[in-house]
Specification:
Strand order of the largest sheet: 10-18-13-14-15
Strand content: 15-25%
Oligomer: single chain
Shape: elongated
Number of helices: 11
Amino acid sequence: MGLTSAMNTAVFGIAYNQRQLDVTATNIANADTAGYSKKTISAEVYFDGLGNVAGMNATEVRRIVDEQIQADYFNSLADTNYAKQIADFTDRLDDIFGTLGDKSGLTTLAGELSSVLSILVNDPGNYAAQSDVVAVADAFARELNASYEQIADLRQEADNALASQTDAVNGLLSSIEDIDEAILQASQSGVSTADMEDERDRLIEQLSAYLDINVSKGANETLFIQTADGQQLYADNQAATLSFSPTHSLQPGQTGNSVMVTTQGGTTYDLIAGSRSGAMVATAELRDDILTEAQTQLDTIAAEISLAFSNVTVESTDVTVGLDDGFDLDVSALQPGNTITVEYTDTGGIAQTVTLVAVEDAALLPLDDSATSNPNDTVYGIDISSGTPATYITNIIAALGGTGLQVSNNGSDELRVLGDNTGPTTVESLTADVTVTAHTDQGLGLAIFVDSRDAPELFTDSLEDGGQRVGYANAIAVNPDLLADSALLVNYQTTPTANTANDPARAQYLSEALTSAETYFDPGSGIGSSSTPFQGSVIGFVNQTVAFQGNQAEDAATYADSKETLTMNLAIRYEESYAVDLDTELAFMVQLENAYAANARVMQTIKELFDELLNIV
């Protein structure tokens, strides 16, 4: 190596050492700066045709970041924030429903109602016992009202949160667009972009909390950001625009608006539908699914406890015509939502159940089998808008035309259903479940609760206008007539003679309706499924619902804790991948200082040699 080549090497070495010393000093100064990644100098040496050092480029500052760990951490952030949002709201939801031992909770009040009804059975004429039943029923209705309102407030809070999250994501995308433009310009100018990339990573980190995104890099280190299913959020240095229209008063059963995205190319898509995780997805799921399901549970409780008390079974009478046996049934008391049940054995010897559901709006027809909670029945809707039993029967004849049964009007405007001896088919039972419209002389049932949305009216579980049970928990109230006269809990008959004041029959009926009578409950409430809905008593369903909410909150909290632990571990690994280690940097600085001194000595030695050569000449 010649003296000139040695001189060049030493000069380049000193320049490199000086640049690296500057970067190392910056690393040490920013060791405690959040989000600062360790930087290093990338040196590129050029040689001449003889193999001598001709130049060196040591201007490119590079970051030390493990991009795989970074991607895992960002993805985990979306899952963690999704889980935390769900856990927060379900915990508050659990507080609303209370626990099995909560003195003011639904389970306790349902148990108290059962208890005071039992006391009334033993002492029907006791005014205090009657008043206690009315008071507890009123407290139960008010607890349903309050719980429903609180959940409605949570839904509104979620809707408002979605609006704030939309604004936040728009702001982050705009900031990414700005920093990406700066990175592009710096890259084209040959200026280091390392610090700007650190800033951009912080923005991506924040964005990942809201949505599960896929991030890749294009030319000049600029970004391409997509949703989980590949929809564009950011491309070609241009951010898409998110829009959201808040719903200022979410009605029962109403789904809120989604977050829409418009790309720079004009394409529009549903952001929530295109994402799987993150705080925004959790917020929308809470508003439209989890909280709505909780309201459905309250509506189901309100509906079933009302029907349990107010509905009575209309029995049929046996009839034989020729060789065919069957039943006659009075259908005059049918109201919208009331049902007729036919149990029969078909021509193949298979037991069948048909449920006829009364409607006043013919536009609802035909009904499908989901119109009832019973998974084993076939459902037909019958139009009773005429108010004429003869017309009801005509519609029933049409509905049951394919069953092989003989269905007719018995001549007294009663429904007659016979088997067919030549079929053969046989009728096992024929009954109607109807809501009492009067306080006496219609059986033992009593409308303890009414629907107070307009004027107080009977709850019959009608399907019109979206279904009477939707939002009913917010409107259930004790019948004003019962508030005025608690003796209605005992007095159920006036003709041909009035029952006695100490007759326990009605109180017994009401008590058993709450605790013993079993029915299928709406699987749309989340308790059970369409194929195996919850079957049991009203009080059993109340207890099951409260337990469901407790389990849901516990599961959500456990899931959130596990996700947070994973994210914390990834955060530690991620930080270790880019963080500045002071001991390492200080040791490296000593090495650089020694190298600087060595290069300086080489230059000094070469200078002395050149001086000697000049003196000789």
